[in-house]
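We now fix the convention by which a protein and its fold are recorded. The integers have meaning only within a learned vocabulary of local backbone shapes. A record is reproduced here so that you can trace the correspondence yourselves:
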Amino acid sequence: MLNNNIGVILLVYNEEIHLKRCLDNLLLLTSNIYVIDSFSTDKTLDILNEYDIKFIQNRFINHSNQLNFAINSFPFYTNYILRVDCDEILSIELINEIKTSKLLDINSKWSGFYIKRKVKFLNKILNYGNINPVWLLRLWKRGKGICDDKLMDEKIIVTDEKTARLQNIIIDYNLNNLTWWTNKHNNYSNREALEILKFKHLDYINSFRGDYYSIDYFIYILKFFYNKAPIFFRSFLLFFYSYFLKLGVLDGVPGFIWNVLQVFWYRYLVDVKVYEFERLHDFNKENIKVELNKIDGK
């Protein structure tokens, strides 16, 4: 039985490789699926029409902007909204939990719910390392959630800070090859480097918005100390922490490759781009501030 008190927000762009799998999975939970498409050029729109899924197109600026557009234009009358990425799968256990949990009663005091996400990489679910699982606020009471304004690692903020945790998992399982994966993360590293530069030079240290007792604040504190650590050296430290201390080694060859690429290579690339930007402006703090403010439109 579907739970049509739940509505789903799905952001898509050229997702023909994942879209049918994603929709078949979501339709086990609800028929209220709202898609925001960033003007796809593949078969994405054909698939949406085939499934008779409601969608609207909106120019992509960043994920935060796109999510808030979706929240503000959400067309279904549902009690709760769930945000899912197209390359993710809700476990059957999570679908059943959302359908039956008393926590999601409309009169419940909880306004937002954190859900565990694990990565499936090279056809193996990774159970260890620094982000397996990672807790994400993905389900919230309608009218209680908004996305923060960040270039990377955007998150939903629940306005009254009343959050709980669900027990079962979302699986992040991207079907694209490693060439696609590295290109995507190369693009992500530009935005991540910009966030770190803002943190370092524009007094973004106290920029946290949300519940100071939440998982998000704990992650924010970890990132605070990571960004304070010596550039370049910190990516080696993070790899050691994830692969050895957080037991990523137990995930076998896929775990090793994941930790090398995601935990070390990606973070090292971000640091190189931070260094490149500062060097381009002669490591002059005032010049760097001026350039960052130009990027921010200030």
About this structure: DSSP finds nine helices and eleven strands in the chain.
